[in-house]
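Re-run requested by the PI after the first attempt was lost when the workstation crashed. Everything re-entered from the original request form. Ligand of interest: glutamine.
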Amino acid sequence: LVIPDFPSFMADITEIYESLLPDRRGQVADYIPQLKRVAPDQFAIAICTVDGQRFTIGDFGQSFCVQSVCKPINYCLTLEGHGAEVVHRHVGREPSGLGFNELSVNGNGLPHNPMINSGAIMSCSLIEASLDMADRFDYVADTWRRLSGGSPVGFNNAVYLSERQTADRNFALGYFMREHGAFPAGTNLIETLEFYFQCCSVELDAGALASVASTLANGGVVPLSGDRVFSTGTVQKCLSLMSSCGMYDYSGEFAFTIGLPAKSGVSGALMLVVPQVMGIAIWSPRLDALGNSVRGIEFCKQLVAKYNFHVYDSL
Ligand code: GLN
């Protein structure tokens, strides 16, 4: 067992959870009504180890939309479909040092990396582009279903419609990248953007997201089912970019203090990967000024204070 004494580990996680419950700092995302209406003080933590031990606490039965947490999964799908050489003709792999939706491309006219909006829109242009829209979405939803080890995976249509309606910046990013010739030949920009909004509107609960994270921790094989969804090489590349770019403008600070690959989303979701050990999902909708879940970040800090999970703790 990777965590030999799971009961005492669960007790420690429970203790961290309880210490964070009174923390009401931060605000829920308010750029669309569907996120603004979410009860702000909900909090769930779910864990799944690479050998399938599981633990959940708090509001783990509540579903939330993945938002930016779709970015690493979509990036993995582009790598599976085309290989890194082709994918990175269209997207860089350097932190941008800018906000996640900043109107900016790198020196080659490409989005900086796949973990920000521009790069995630680019990923969408590269996923099964020859299929029609319905089949492309089915492919992504099926991937989430497999990654979650059989938990239900939903789609929040109201979030999708609202994202699409308030998407001026994402449209601007799309046109800006097209102006720079960044997209693959034949890309339908409007369809690509709609596909991106659909991917952000995939819904699951913390337990399912922990399974997704554990699959990344396990090199692409779902611990709960034994299903190989991604190759090890794909996961290695994805975790590298999550480590450098996954936490918005806090990515460098997160790499320094936590030292683990992670991805956050505006819904308050945070997916944390402890390679070869476990995946952790934290969901708490109140966000800090940089857009990360307040309790999510605090949880990560307390976790590495208690356990030697920081990548350089083993030195
Ligand atoms: N749907 C959001 C957007 O594109 C997702 C961004 C996020 O989670 N940071 O703006």
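Saved to the shared folder this time. The mean pLDDT is 97.
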